[in-house]
Amino acid sequence: MTTIKQDDLIQSVADALQYISYYHPADYIQALTAAWEKEASPAARDAMAQILVNSRMCAEGHRPICQDTGMVTAILKVGMDVKWDASMSLEEMVNEGVRQGYNHPDNILRASVVSDPAGKRLNTRDNTPAVIHTRIVPGDKVEIGLAAKGGGSENKSKFTVLNPSGDLVDWVLKTVPTMGAGWCPPGMLGIGIGGSAEKAMLLAKESLMEHIDIHELMARGPQNRVEELRLELFEKVNALGIGAQGLGGLTTVLDVKILDYPTHAASLPVAMIPNCAATRHVEFTLDGSGPANLQPPSPDVWPEISLAGSAKARRVNIDTITREEIASWKPGESLLLSGKLLTGRDAAHKRIQDMLARGEPLPEGVDFNNRFIYYVGPVDPVGDEVVGPAGPTTSTRMDPFTDMMLGETGLIGMVGKAERGPAAIDSIKRHRAVYLMAVGGAAFLVSKAIRSSRMVAFEDLGMEAIREFEVEDMPVTVAVDSKGTSVHQTGPAEWKVKIGKLVD
């Protein structure tokens, strides 16, 4: 009988969460590198290059790949013959590991979990509790799978119950385009088939723990219906032309994972969950010999890449910008921003909206007139950092506030990730404003462009507070120009046609 010590489990969970915050799985790096090498879309190729450069920087600097360091999912398989040397419950041990992992002084991870989700939404400050699934299985070991799932991809989770004769492939191909680019492709699609509603969702989440092997499957050929579906969906989803960051290109998914389970004869439950470009997951086993020992990927796994796109980018001073200059920017154009911009996310926008509705002035220092806002919730800095990893958050969440911000505060530009919805695009066009896109999954790289950071307002909101960043050569792409043209509409449409012609 194996004895598992409480401290070994806690330390293993904490160490593993630190590990996945800055190390991509080697299979993901290799698959993304292969996709980058064959990518024909310049915009998508540059986005993948930024993700790969950021990945290497994070591995070397032990800092988070993405500012959204995720909500923890733990899948535990506990052997029936395991004995515990512990005073805490199993869930308490996992959550203590999360607490210690996210508050490590050398690499502080962002606390994103809020309690009272339908009410005050107060940040728990340590990213607990985790979502924990436990199974009791034969054996004398404890197998643990950990994932840290960011909100941008988790929010795109989909579920349906098809008729038993329904077309699963057709549902996936209709649904993926509705997910937009907020899940930061290229990543993986996890699909759960069967069981009940909650079982299908868990199957989809579990499938994302598996390693990328689609090309090995292509080489040997499918041996069952699930493998046939994986290959069919991999080809057809990529043929949609969505591409890296939704900019249009050859690669939208690096793999499609499927797990299934017996279901009711009258049902065909199907769940789909995307994994983003951060792709944080790790598996380890405790056998009583001590904490888990996780080995870093070999430095040779990362390609040598220089970000050549910067040399062609237009340099912009946002401190002196005018609407006339903004009007000259072209959809898809690369820019390097320098100057001061304010930050703000959901909670800050809601507070601003409420203050304006009550006729109250905005807090001192909050002046958006002729300025840009960056949708970001940064990681806390460590050492001599000005700010921790500070990549963009999903911009569509700010769509309900866009007309208010552009019409009532004098704001002229926004920086975030992924597409904007029709109402936001219409508002951008009417106000002759602009929306710029930074690459999701390149948070540490983006943070290197931030020269100073100061708190401006709403400090109680933590990572959602309003700050002022001074940036130098921050890389962005014109995603919606002042005429209302969106590259997230034109890019995928163009590449869907191009891919169709290549297939033909």
Give an overview of the whole structure:
The structure is a single chain. With 504 residues, the chain is of the alpha/beta class. The chain is built from 16 helices and 19 strands. The protein folds into two domains: 2-287, no CATH class; 309-490, Fe-S hydro-lyase, tartrate dehydratase beta-type, catalytic domain (fumarase). The strands form five sheets. The protein has a five-stranded mixed barrel. Strands 6-2-7-12 form a four-stranded mixed sheet. It has a four-stranded mixed sheet with strand order 8-11-9-10. The longest helix has 20 residues, at 42-61.
Gross geometry: globular
Q: Which range best describes the helical content: under 10%, 10-25%, 25-40%, 40-55%, 55-70% or over 70%?
A: 25-40%
Instruction: Count every helix, treating DSSP H or I runs of 4 or more residues as helices.
Output: 16
Radius of gyration: 23 Å
Number of domains: 2
The neighbouring-strand order within the major sheet is: 14-15-16-17-19
Q: State which percent range the strand residues make up.
A: 15-25%
Jot down its keywords.
2 domains, alpha/beta, 16 helices, 19 strands, single chain, 4-stranded mixed beta sheet, 5-stranded mixed beta barrel, 504 residues, fumarase, 34% helix
